[in-house]
Structures are given as C-alpha cells and as structure tokens.
Amino acid sequence: MILIWLISILFIGGILAWASERYNQNYPRNIALLTVLLDLLLMLSILPSESITSEWITVFQIDWIPRFGISLYFALDGLSLLLIILTAFLGAISIGSAWNEIKTQTGFFYFNLLWTLAGVIGVFTALDLFLFFFFWEVMLIPMYFIIAIWGHENKNYAAMKFFIFTQVTGMLMLVSILVLAYSHYTQFGSYSFKYEDLLSVSLASSLQFWVMLGFFISFTTKLPSVPFHSWLPDAHSQAPTAGSVILAGILLKTGAYGLIRFAVPLFPEASLTFAPIAMGLAALSILYCAKVAFAQSDIKRLIAYTSVSHMGFVTLGVYAWNEQALQGAVMTMLAHGLSAAALFMLAGGLQHRIHTRDMGDMGGLWTQVPRMAVVAVFFSVAALGMPGLGNFVGEFLALLGAFQTNIPATVIAAFGLILASVYSLWVIQKVFHGEYSGEHFDEAKLTDLSRREMFYFGAMMLGLVWMGMYPQSFLDLSQPVLAQLLSSSQGVVSNLAGIQ
Amino acid sequence: MQDLIWLLPTFPLLGFLALVLTAGNLPRQIVAFIGAGSVGLSFITAIFIAFEFLASGEDYFVKEVWTWMSVGAFNPGFSFYLDGLSVVMMLVITGVGFLIHSYATGYMADDPSFSRFFSYMNLFVAAMLMLVLGDNLVVLYLGWEGVGLCSYLLIGFWYTKPENGYAARKAFVVTRVGDTSMAIGLFLLFAQLGTLNIQDLLHAAELEWTTGSGLAVAVSLLLLGGAVGKSAQLPLQTWLPDAMAGPTPISALIHAATMVTAGVYLIARTHILFELAPTVQLLVAWIGLITLLMAGFTALTQSDIKRILAFSTVSQIGYMFLGLGVGAWSAAIFHLMTHAFFKALLFLASGTVILSVHHEQSIFKMGGLRKALPVSFASFLIGSLALTAFPYTSGYFSKDEILLAAFELEGVGTYLWLGGVIGAFFTGIYTFRLFFIVFFGENKGHLPEKEVGGWHMNGPLILLMILSLVGGFITIPVEAVFSHGAAHGEHHVSALVHGFMIAMPLVGIFISYMFFYAKKWSIEDLMSKPIAQKLHRLWHSGWGMDYIYDRIFVFPFVWLSRINKDDLIDKLYTFIAMVSRLANTYVVRTQTGYLRWYALSVACGLIIILVVGVLL
Q1: Distance from CA of A168 to the nearest CA of B (A)
Q2: Cβ within 8 Å, pair B159-A366
Q3: If phi over 0 gives left and psi between -120 and 50 gives alpha, with beta otherwise, what is residue B529?
Q4: Is residue A348 a part of any domain in this protein?
Q5: Which residues of B touch A393 (CB under 8 A)?
C-alpha cells in the first residue's frame, strides 16, 4: 500500500501546488517541497533494518484490466528503493534550485515537476509492463512542458526533439511489450503483462532478438547512448536548471534501470549474444561523447555530453552481467545522479547570474566566487573518477567486472578515464582559472553561492563522499537483487547451453 | 601504538578539512600552525610507530580499519600494511614533508591564498601516506590519484596565469595516461589472481606464474606504465619540467621528494611481479638509463634555476629505475631517500634565492650571490655535492650501490653501468654550472641586500644540509622486504673500476669549474660550432618530445574535436527532420483548392494504376 501512497502523494501534491498559485505565487514551491520531503520520509521508513531475505520488500497488486491480464502491480526491492530515494532526494534539490529561478506560472511548473517525479517512481516500482509503459509516458509529458515553457532561447526545438526521440523509441518498446503479452497468450492461453509471467515466456531466438532490440533502443535512448544521444545536449542546454537536474539525475537512470530489470532478464539468450555489440557501443559512447564534450563552448552542452559519456560505463557494466560490473553500474547511476545534477546546478546558477552559458565569456571567476569554484572543482573531480568519491567506485567496479567478460571493450572504455580528465579540467580552466575580465556580463549580478545553495551542494557532496568511502551501505541494498537476477538468467543461459 | 597507524593520514586530512571548511577566514598564524602542525604530529607518530615496529622484530604488520567495498570476491579494505619499505617511505614523507611545510610557512607568508595552499599541501600528505601504507592496490590507487590531484591543484596554484593552468593540466593528463595503464593492470591482476591485496597477489603470482610467462609480462608492463607516468620517466617525462610553474615548496615536496618517486615505490612494492618478467625488468633499467642521460643533457642547456633542478630530478629518478631494473631494490629505495634529502634541500634553497632576487628565475640574471645569500650558498654547495655523488655525501653511497649492482649484472650490465657513469659525469657538469653561475662571478641582475629567511625557513635548510651530508650512513630496514633480491652491500669490484666511478663526477665538476668559474675555457667558442648549436637546441627543447607529442596526440585530438563540434550523429537526425520539412513544403502545394487539379491527379493516378496492373 505504501507504494501507492508514494506515487499518489506526488500526484495530489502536484494538483494542490497548481491550485494554490491563485492565492500566492510562492505557495506552490512550498507545497512542492513539503510533498517531496514527505515522500522521502516515507521511503526512509521502508528502509529495511536488517539485511533483506525475501525477494521484494513490499508488494502491491490489484487487477486493473483483468481481461488483458493488466494489473496495478507495484513491487519494491533494494534496487528500486535506492533509485526512488535518489529520485526524492534530487527532487527536493531540484525544487531548491528552482526556488528563485522560476518566476512565471509557478503553479503549473511545480505541478509538472511533481508529476514527472511521480512518473519516475512509478517506473522504478511498476512490475506490470503495461503499467510500466504508462508511467514511462507519464514522466515524459510533464518534462516536455518544463522544457517548452520555462526553457531558454531555443526551447521549442529542444522540447520537440526530446519528445520525438522518447516517443518514437517508446513506441518500439510498446510493440515489444505487446509481442511479449501475445506470446504469453499463445503459450499459456491468457494475456499477461506481469513481469514474472513474462519472464517465463520463451520466444524463438530470431524473434527474441527483435523484441529485445525494441527494449534496448528505447532504454538506450533514455540513457542515452550513441547513436541515440543527440536529443540530450539540446534538452539540457534549453531546460531550466530544475529540469536539467531531474533529467540528468533521474530520468536518464530510468533507461539504465530498464536495462537491468527488463532488457537483459527478459531476453537472457539474445542479450548474451548481443552483449559484445552493446559493450562496443558503450565504449564508443564513452570516447565519442567525451571528445565531443571537449569541443563545446556552451557549458551545459558540455556537461550533457559528459553525461552520455559516463552513462556508457553503465551500459558496459550491465552487459558484462556479473556481480562487480552490475554493482558498478548501479553505483555509477547513483553517483552520477548526484555529480551531474550538481554540475548542471552550477551551470544553471552561473547562467542565472550572468546570463550566458558560453565559457568564452567566463574565466577567472575563482577570485570572484571562490565558494562556487571550490564546489565546482569538487564535482568535476568527482566526475573524472577520483577515488574516495562515489563515481570512482561505480566506474572502477564496472570496468573491473567488464574486464572479465570483454577485454577489448573494457580497455577502450578505460581510455575514457583520460578523456574525462581532459574535459573536466578544461572546464575548470575556462570558467574559474585564468585572468578575470568581467567584460561580457553584468558584474554586479555575479554573487557567490548563497547559504541555501551551499546547503544543498553540501548535502550532495556528503552523499558522494559517503558513496566513495563507505559504498557498502548502497551495495548491500542492491546485492540481493542483483544476485537474484544473475542466478536466474544464468540458469536460462546454461540450460540453453545444455540443450545445444 | 602500531594500531594507531591510521592516525598518520588522518592528521593531515583533518588539517585539510579544517582549512577548507574555514575557507580562508583563519588568521595566518593559526593556518600555519594547523598546516605544518598536522604534518608534524604525523611525523612524531610515525617515529613512535617505526621504533615499535623495528623493536618488535616482525617482518610486517597489518591493520584493517574498515572494508571499503565488498562485491563478490572483490573486497579491498581500508587497511594499512607496514614493513621495512613503508617505514622508510612514511618517515621520508612525514619528515621531509614537515620540514617543507615549515619552510613554506615563511615562503608563502605574503600570499593572499595562504590557507588554500596549506589545505592542498595537507591533502597531499594524507594521500601520499595512503599510497605507501595501503595493503592493497585499490587503496594504493586512491593515494596515487589523490597525489595527482593535489599536484594538479598546486601546480596551478597561481591560476590567474593561463600558462600555469596549462602546466597543471598537462601534468594531470600525462600522468593519467600512466594511471589508466595501471588501472588496466589492476583489472588484469584481479581477473587472473582474484585479489588485489598486494601480499596475497604476489604470493599467488609466484605460485601460479612461471618466470617469463605472458601474464607476468603483461601485468608488469601495465604497472610500469603507471610508474613511468608518475615518476616522469621516458616516454611520459614531459610534464615534470612544466610542473615547476607551482610554488617552489611544492616542487620540493611533490616534484622532488615524494610523489615523483611513487613509481619507484610501486615497482619496488611489486618487485616479485617484475622478477617474474625479466625482460620487463631489464626494460625498467633501460628506461632509467635513457631517461637519466636525456634529462642530464637537457639540464645542461637550461637557464631557469628550477627547470635545471627539475631535469636533474628526472635524471636522478632514472638512476632509481636503473637500480630497480638491475635488481638492486634496496639501493633504489636508498637513493630515493637520499635524493629526497638533497633535492628537497636544493629546491628549498632555490626558493630562497628566487625570493631574495624578487622572483627572478634565470640563472644568467643572477651571479655573485655567494656573500649576499650565505645560507642558500651553503645549502647549494652541500646539495650539489650530494647530487654529484661527491664521496661520503649521502648521494655518493646510494648512487654507488646502484652503479655497482649494474656493473655486476650479467650480460648488458657493463653498458648500463657505463651509461650510468657517463650520466654521473654530466651530473657533475650541470650541477656545478648552476652553482658557479649563480653564486660566483659578477652579478647580472638584482643584488639582494639581505637573504629572505627566518628560523622556520632556515631551520629546515640546516637540517636538510645535515641529512644530505650524513644521510648515507643511515641503514634502511628493507632486507626482509627484498630478501630474495640482489645482495646488499657485498660488491666485488676492482679498485680501478670503483675509482673510475668516483672520479667521473669530479671530472665533471672540474670541467664546470674551468668553464664557469675560472673561465679558462670559453662557452662561446664551444657554442660557435654549428653542431653545438643544433645539439643545444635539441637538448634545450627536451629532445623535442613536446613537439612530437603535440603533433601526434594533442593537435589531432583538438582538430577532431573542432571539426566535430556539432556532433556528426546529430546531423543524421536533423537531416531526417529537414527531409520531412521539405516534403511538407512541396506536398502542401498540391493542396490548391482547384477542383480541376484534383480531378487531373485522380485521373493520372487511375491511369498509372491501370498501366501497372496491365503490365504485371
């Protein structure tokens, strides 16, 4: 039942926030923050005190459209729990970043923001594939509005591109889901969209490949990965800061989650044969986008490309499909969620202050905004994989695991570590180092981080240090889930090998 | 007391946190107190721990603090490993580190970012201690990357100058190339041996791998990649001279005494792997030899006082690599220690010189500083003698052992030895070239009225002078670590060979004396020959390595990035969008509203369908 509450609180909060706008422009943000914090508290109350023994921490299931075997089926395990906590945490932080930035139509803005979060939590907990697809769409449309209404100079183009990419590939996934449900009908005599039911569906290997590809393309567009990544830089550079935070911190992770939860377990054999291609794409993604990132002068586009590059480690880890690699993928999702969100907030904060995203206009800002500079160095260094911070644990484990299954892809991907240092330090150089001129913007507006900003940056820094120094708190939650996924898929694969 | 070993990195880490969290709002005395005091505390703790450890007679001591991460079979801990090798390293790091911190409180006294400087320095010491005390390669890698980060931050400390930022980034990126090689080495080790605990994997490797096996060669090559990056050896040596853009105390601490020797430590720590791959071990020796000669020639042609010392550091680490390569493990570590003494001394003294002449760094704009700067003069005299291995100074003992071990190596040992001796000869020339030009002759720039200093700057110099003089008599407790390596101290070399070795650096000093002090020989005559000019240009540019790397790696990368700024893949999608828009504009034109056009098109369509139907 608590899962229903988690989602409906956000839906209701969104409507309340919208409705409250007519009384006061500032009510929506307060309501939104309270809603998300309430959600976060609820989630923390589910945190198991001891190590998890049963597969699911909590399950909720009632029929929805019984004729087609569709039900409201939600379930939560350690992996979902980690991701929904990340969602609520970054949700709260994104509201903080919008606090003074969003001045128009505040009610509708927070409505969209909360509904996006609701959609994401639905995606992370839905175990009925129809329901999953429903939430996949729910998180898309409010996000479209956030970019299209509160975005920057080229917002309509970016919003439309985001929408088309996600929608077209989402349709591929829908077709795949329907094929699965229909196959269940032909094999067992009834329609079903239930995760466990569909796991037992067996498809002919040629069909399996195409159905798997539908999921894969949909998820790697969201992730994103080369060659489906090009909506992201536009969406990020045009979105308001809060939009970027949710996009980079949370929405991208739904793609990674989909790969781990659905794409590989539903099609273990097809995924196994596809793994070299997926890992190759991952390595390509890492290097290609790192290189393109280096060429950007728009700071938000640059960070967007680095996001694609870092998410490559997730794909690499997922398709290596062993314990270290999967834990690495999960840790990368969590750590990158914080570090990328923080970098986008810094970029957004700069844009809000000096009305430019062009790094050519900046330089030498360290002397002017030292606190911001230190925070930026921290998160850049985290992003380039400094041991002791969360991103290192994720990327190191992903590479360590991937090396055991695919040496060439891993070695190529490891070169991403060099390129990450090239672009990260380049940003620091262009923005904060060098001589300060202050010619290109209104200097009076360039103020250092406020106490509110320091508060949420501090919270994210603590999070990354925690992940970096004692990742066990997180690893322990996802461990049973991943072990379960590994053992079940290994059974199928080895059975297959036995038959052949 | 040994159980408190975790305090060693904790003190400087707390210092770092205190300085960062107060964000430069503390008074300078308190910053200095925290900055130098935290390292001092570590040093005192290190002494106690070292005494207890050595008194216990145990070979090693392990202290696990907590499990870092535990994923399947991979569970590295935050644990400390103490043996003779790490005892030496921790004492050098905290001891020399403390002296340099103390010196820096004076050197940096007028800098507006005093607090930021010490926060980086403290973080560096903490990371360096993790590097040498970690009991597994993951913790070592933590320290390894941590010192790289601090090196970056400190080289770019005066960030308003773009060239400093460039030098800092170059240092970080070039060493990261090596780091990545090392990381891949770690992956390979784990995939093969199932552990990254150093002692466990060394034992496993000894059991499972035969000497010369492909895996041993691959792993040691990959680790060597990390070592040459960090220790500025061929082919990744190009970053170190540029790193001199940082404040001089960090050149002494990071780029002479501690961090740049991390590669030597890594190889010594994993020496069993290198013994399993003799070809790679020999490669280490050749890399060391070629680097020491190339850097020595380059040092001859430089005019910036710090760059001369930087190239000399590269050259001296070359000796350490030579020692490692010929299996003289303890001699290499011994040279690491004595080098830390005399090179820290030389760098700090050069800092005093630079401050006293108002930030002039060209030796040709100095001259005759002997009287004005007595402490620096004494420091340089002693430091230079130790650097050139003048008999009975500290550098003499350590370099002597390395060269003797090389001489005794079967096969190519003689060549390695001869190269090393030639290097020592050039060391004599370039070291005393610097010494004579700076302190003798006429002053060509600014003659300072008084020497910058004070007890917290001169005290460290004096202590380092003493260590540079008598440090060679220290016995380092590393026999147990390298028990099956080359024998220590027992050399059988004819007096003639030994005499030749000792004499060559002295000849070098004499040549320098004739050129730069007595002026009996003229450098102008030498330089008038075209071949000399060409050589000078080649050596001065560091053998053109930067030029080559720029053209092979940097320019193509920047070029590729520039031409693909707009992301070629995106073009594909915008092309689809463009096509549909074009199609739209043309198809829209058919919506004219004229009935006759519609009728005509219906008729045409009909005809086409009929024709197709008939033909098929």
Answers
A1: 13
A2: yes
A3: beta
A4: yes
A5: 69
Q: Which residues numbered 318-377 in B keep a CB inside 8 Å of some CB on A?
A: none
- Shortest Cα distance from B45 to chain A (angstroms)? 24
CA distance B371 to chain A (A): 39
The residue among A266, A288, A317 that closes a domain is: A266
* Nearest beta carbon to residue A400 from set B20, B70, B190: B190
CB contact under 8 Å between B138 and A387, yes or no, is yes
Compare all CA atoms of chain A with the CA of B577 and give the residue at the minimum distance: A161
Chain B residues closer than 8 Å to A470 by CB: 66, 68
Inter-chain CB proximity A230 and B569 less than 8 Å: yes
Residue A492 has what pLDDT?
Answer: 60
CA distances from A417 to A398, B172, B431 (A): 13, 12, 39
Residues of B with Cβ-Cβ distance to A227 under 8 angstroms: 569, 572
Q: Mind spelling out the 3-state secondary structure of B129-153?
A: HHHHHECEHHHHHHHHHHHHHHHHH
A193-212: pLDDT as tens digits: 988 888 888 888 888 899 99
3-class SS shares of chain A: helix, strand, coil, % to 5? 80, 5, 20
Same domain, A245 and A344: no
pLDDT in tens, A67-126: 888 999 999 888 999 999 999 999 999 998 888 888 888 899 999 999 999 999 999 999
Boundary (domain end) residue, out of A223, A243, A266: A266
Report if residue A329 sits inside a domain: yes
Q: Are A123 and A105 in the same domain?
A: yes
Task: With cut-offs at 50, 70 and 90, classify the pLDDT of residue B554.
Answer: confident
A74, containing H or E segment: strand A70-76
CA distance to partner chain A, nearest, from residue B61 (Å): 23
What's the gap between Cα B26 and its chain centre?
32
Q: What ipTM was estimated for this complex?
A: 0.91
The one-letter amino acid at B341: F
The answer to whether the CB atoms of B188 and A403 lie below 8 A apart is yes
Closest CA to A4 of A90, A67, A83, A62: A62
Same domain (yes/no): A313, A168: no
Cβ(B326)–Cβ(B416) below 8 Å: yes
Instruction: Show the tokens assigned to A128.
Output: 């009925």
Q: Closest to B70 (Cβ–Cβ): which among A377, A422, A472?
A: A472
Which of B78, B187, B557 has its CB closest to that of A410? B187
Same domain? For A429 and A463 the reply is yes
Asked if the C-beta of B188 comes within 8 angstroms of chain A's C-beta atoms, the answer is: yes
For residues A368 and A407, state if they share a domain: yes
Are A291 and A331 within one domain?
yes
d(CA A322, CA A410): 14
Question: Is residue A271, in this structure, part of any structural domain at all?
Answer: no
Quote the number of domains for chain A.
Answer: 2
> If we measure between CA atoms, which residue out of B127, B99, B112 comes closest to residue B12?
B127
Contact assignment for A425 to B168 by CB distance below 8 Å: yes
The reply to whether A244 falls in a domain is yes
Asked if residues A482 and A79 have their Cβ atoms less than 8 Å apart, the reply is yes
Contacts for B574 with CB less than 8 Å, ≥ 6 apart:
none
Chain B residues in contact with A226 (beta carbon < 8 A)? 569
Tokens standing for residue B212: 């010369």
Residues A303 and A435 in one domain: yes
CA distance A341 to B264: 39
The answer to whether A391 and A335 are in contact (CB under 8 A) is yes
Q: What is the pLDDT of residues B251-274, one digit of tens each?
A: 999 998 899 999 999 999 999 999
Same-domain check for residues A255 and A148: yes
Give pLDDT, residue A499: 46
Model confidence at A498, in pLDDT bands (50, 70, 90)?
Answer: very low
Q: Which domain holds residue A434?
A: 276-500
* B409 against B172, higher pLDDT: B172
